[in-house]
Specification:
This protein has helices spanning about 10-20, 30-45, 75, 85-95, 110-115, 150-185, 235-255, 260-275, 360-370, 375-390, 425-435, 445-465, 505-510, 535, and strands at about 50-55, 60-70, 80, 100, 120-130, 130-140, 195-200, 210-220, 225-235, 280-285, 290-300, 305, 310-315, 320, 335-340, 345-350, 400-405, 415-420, 470-480, 480-490, 515-520, 525-530. With about 550 residues, it is α+β, with helices and mostly antiparallel strands. Helix 11 packs antiparallel against helix 12 (about 445-465).
């Protein structure tokens, strides 16, 4: 039987009780262990039968039993209580202590409490700098009157628990957010002939993580996509939303015709699944020829365009639509198309780059425009970070992404080596869509060669190798008004199964002007030659 607490404790006793919950040796413990130790001490000092901490979940709508002493079933069974409901929910909603002497289905929502035989409960909120973290409650198996001194001590214990929880959760959340963000930012930007990429990501001065992100990826169509964005908020919640947006952008880009359509679907996605969230995004799609880029801005700062003629400008004339998730407006999102000449640099960034204490954002944008110049992308990023960041730590996270269209080199030939797997066909098609227009191929030429070369590569994938796999080499040359393609493998030719085979060879003969296929001990060589349309009509 618990004893009645003597409320006439001496000053020495009160000091001893306070010291038990302010013991610095608890600092080295993890959040669960520290909570457990503190709850054991609370239970002992107040001579109660149970002590439980319920913490607010990420939605801030529910309290979740996280640690308990005397009624561990609450934790093991994952008890959840909605804020505003029952005993615990009332404390969370009103942020005031609450005592009940009748524990039943009419006063609490957790059946464990009355089934366990608890008669009296007293609870206090867990607050850190005025922010609710959860609630702490203690209970007894017999009726018990808690005086003001005991409730004040329980509030002091709650303050100590809140400090420990806030510190531990902040560290845990920061580590999780950092790991998540680093895992989602590209470790290596794709290699695209004719383009040079570079990027930077720098956390803010507190090393707190936010929702800044960027991405570069190619599509089976041969188009190249670039995205940069900023989720409103900080910490793990912002990083998690960022990760979901990034994944959704890649998924929608596979099936959409342009940037505005992608952002429209992302907006709908966010408003439905993350209704309290908002983000800005700049999303660009490059044509395979790299001559044009289609760009849509969802509340994001305009990029900088620097041409080889020395002209550098903020693209403030581009249409800017509402941020993602900001409203349910039916106004269609817009896409602008930019002509990108050789030697042109395009620079994207998040607002942390241009915003500084004591410096208007207009000055930051002006300095950015003056700094971005055509050149190697790494140099562009280095110059920008030097001019706008320098030695001063940024208050907010910074993400930047630079792309420069390189001056044309001798591109009369193209060589590829791919794995002999069906997935490699998409890579071949992308490279052909990018290279063929640069050597004078018309749209019809490109379509014919995509099919013909695709059939030659597919034959090597299907017939040359067994389960162990292998490699397929391609060489394409343009000259004298024609394109010649050689596809080689080092496998042993195996006849395909089934009827109606050999249509691939027929297609290659129909679409090209010359075709030879040589099978030998060293593998198979397919050679194609096609006159370009402009040469045929010359």
């Amino acid at each position: 039987m618990p004893r009645a607490v003597d409320t006439t404790d001496s000053a020495e006793d009160r000091l001893r009780r306070i010291e038990t919950i302010t013991d610095s040796t608890l600092a080295h413990l993890g959040v669960e262990d520290a909570l457990q130790e503190l709850l054991d001490r609370v239970r002992d000092n107040l001579d109660v039968d149970t002590a439980t901490a319920l913490l607010l979940d990420s939605t801030k709508q529910h309290l979740v039993a996280t640690a308990s002493s005397g009624i561990e079933e609450e934790v093991h069974q994952g008890v959840r209580v909605r804020v505003g409901e029952g005993f615990a929910g009332r404390i969370a909603a009103e942020l005031e202590p609450y005592v009940i002497n009748e524990v039943s289905s009419s006063t609490v929502v957790n059946p464990l409490l009355w089934r366990k035989g608890i008669r009296t409960l007293v609870g206090v909120p867990l607050l850190a700098e005025g922010e609710l973290l959860g609630i702490l409650h203690v209970g007894t198996f017999r009726e018990r009157e808690f005086d003001d001194a005991e409730i004040d001590w329980l509030r002091l214990a709650a303050d100590r628990i809140s400090v420990s929880v806030r510190s531990q959760l902040t560290t845990t959340e920061r580590n999780a957010a950092t790991t998540l963000q680093r895992s989602l930012l590209p470790t290596e930007l794709p290699r695209v002939p004719g383009l040079d990429f570079a990027s930077r990501y720098v956390p803010g001065e507190r090393l707190d993580i936010s929702g800044d992100w960027y991405d570069v990826f190619t599509l089976p169509s041969g188009r190249l996509c670039m995205a940069i964005g900023d989720v409103v908020g900080r910490g793990l919640p912002a990083a998690m939303i960022m990760s979901r947006i990034r994944t959704a952008v890649r998924a929608y880009a596979l099936d959409c015709d342009g940037p505005a359509e992608v952002l429209t679907k992302i907006d709908r996605h966010l408003r439905h699944f993350e209704p309290e969230s908002m983000a800005t995004i700049a999303f660009a799609m490059w044509e395979p020829s790299l001559d044009q880029v289609h760009l849509s801005l969802a509340g994001h700062l305009a990029p900088v365009l620097a041409t080889g003629h020395g002209d550098s400008r903020l693209l403030t004339d581009l249409p800017v639509d509402a941020p993602i998730g900001v409203s349910s407006s039916t106004r269609p999102r817009r896409t602008a198309t930019l002509d990108i000449g050789h030697g042109t640099a395009l620079f994207f960034y998040t607002d942390g780059l241009v915003e500084r204490r004591g410096r208007p954002i207009e000055d930051g944008l002006r300095l950015l425009r003056e700094t971005v110049r055509p050149g190697p992308a790494e140099v562009v990023c280095a110059e920008v970070m030097s001019a706008l960041v320098g030695s001063e730590a940024a208050r907010d996270d910074i993400a930047v992404l630079a792309v420069c269209r390189q001056e044309p080199e001798s591109n009369s030939s193209l060589e590829l080596e791919i794995d002999a797997v069906p997935e490699s066909l998409a890579e071949v098609r992308s490279e052909l869509r990018r290279w063929l227009p640069s050597v004078g191929a018309s749209e019809d030429d490109v379509a014919d060669l995509l099919i013909a070369v695709g059939e030659a590569v597919a034959n090597s994938v299907e017939h040359a190798y067994g389960p162990q796999g292998g490699r397929v080499a391609l060489r394409m040359e343009a000259g004298d008004g024609a394109v010649e393609v050689t596809v080689r493998d080092a496998g042993t030719w195996r006849e395909g199964r089934g009827k109606h085979r050999g249509r691939g060879t027929q297609l290659m003969r129909q679409l090209c002007d010359e075709l030879t296929v040589d099978h030998g001990e060293q593998g198979t060589r397919v050679w194609l030659r096609k006159l370009l349309a402009e040469s045929e009509t010359a």
